[in-house]
Amino acid sequence: MPNLRKKLPSANALFVFEAAARCENFTKAAAELYVTQPAVSRMLARMEDHLGVQLFDRAQGKTTLTENGRILYRRISEGFRNIEAALQEIEARNTGKETVTLSVSTAFTTHWLMPRMNKLHKLFPQIDLRFQLIPGPISGPVDDVDIAMRFMGGDDAQHRTVLIMPEILLPVCSPGYEEQTRRTNTQSAREGDTLIKLSEGHIDWFEHFPSFHDETANNTANLLTVPDYAVVLQAALLGQGVAVGWVNVACHWLQTGTLVPAELEALKTGRLCHLVHSRNKPIRPAAAAICDWIIEETRSDIAAVDRMYPALGLPALIQKNAG
Predict the structure, then answer these.
(1) Average pLDDT over residues 298-309
(2) Is 165 helix (H, G, I), strand (E, B) or coil?
(3) How far is CA 209 from CA 60, 106, 179, 189, in A?
(4) Rg for the chain (alpha carbons), in Å?
(5) Is the CB of residue 284 less than 8 Å from the CB of residue 98?
(6) GO MF annotations for this entry (predicted)?
(7) Is the predicted pLDDT of residue 91 greater than 50, yes or no?
């Protein structure tokens, strides 16, 4: 270890290099480390001068690892993962609890997971569940978490995946809103609806449902636009209008009757929702248990919603992706 200290300008250089190499961007690494981008650049330049080799290629605003950089990053990543595993083991021995970190959307956490937290704690009293919450589209690296929810086609070079279900959409609203709409609508079946939409969405999900899409195009006065899908569903729960519900997120409220289908029509988008973990970090038994529980709960949800609304044909939509 004395030799290692001599080969590095400082121990902090390892953390800066690892973040920059993983993010492939000095600005993102700086944000993660709560320092400025120039500070990251200076530390890495100092590290390269100290080692006498170039670790990054910096060209046309893009940062990539050199061959020497890749060798160093591979070994540092392995070392950091081993240290993290040791710290988790010590924490579990000391507290009797094992930490499992999930990378999920705020909507999934708010509307699917929170209603089940008491159940989860009773089933897994030894697990301390932590969250990396994503307010917008779920994306980003998964190396720093145990399990992530992502839309992917399946396994790839960096990830192992377990399919939760295909993405299925359904227009939803509160029972009170639906009753009021029936009383007041005297012309077109959906005329006068307030449609709740994502402000940051690049896709108009209502376009998949013609009766609602026509209204979106012709009557922008009846749009309620909010920045987070968790708020979209909350607005629907409060009777503010019709939202497009992702079935795997809204299923709890459908089962309780707090949300109801605004139309008995569900459709599959082609995207697949998976639970994902990094190939660089073998999944621990506690994390695997949480993964299995989410899958089991989702299957139970779909069966319950299907019993309530068989006309939606949810099992048939999901079965197309079986295997």
Answers:
(1) 95
(2) strand
(3) 44, 25, 20, 13
(4) 24
(5) yes
(6) DNA-binding transcription factor activity; sequence-specific DNA binding
(7) yes
Closest to 200 in 3D by CA, of 237, 166, 226, 180: 226
| Strand stretches in 85-158, DSSP E | 98-105, 127-134, 147-151
Q: Which long-range contacts (CB under 8 A, 24 or more apart) does 2-8 make?
A: 7/50, 7/51, 8/47, 8/50
The runs of H, that is alpha helices, within 104-167 are 106-108, 117-123
**Residue of 173, 219, 210 lying closest to 192 (CA atoms):** 219
User: What SS3 class is residue 254?
Assistant: helix
Neighbour tally for 270: CB within 10 Å:
9
Domains in the chain, please, with CATH? 2-89 (1.10.10.10), 97-323 (3.40.190.290)
Give me the half-sphere count of Cα atoms (radius 13 Å) on the Cβ side of residue 121. Answer: 6
Cα dist. 265→61, 100, 210, 258, 317 in Å?
47, 37, 11, 18, 12
Instruction: Please report, for residues 96, 276, 309, the alpha-carbon distance to residue 128 in angstroms, rounded to integers and kept in the order given.
Output: 10, 19, 36
* 3-state DSSP assignment of residue 222: helix
**How high is the pLDDT of residue 190?**
64
Residues whose CB is less than 8 angstroms from the CB of residue 109 and which lie 6 or more positions away in sequence, other chains included: 131, 133, 230
Q: Mean per-residue pLDDT for 48-68?
A: 86
User: What's the rounded Cα separation, in Å, for the pair 143 and 321?
Assistant: 27
The per-residue pLDDT for 323 is 46
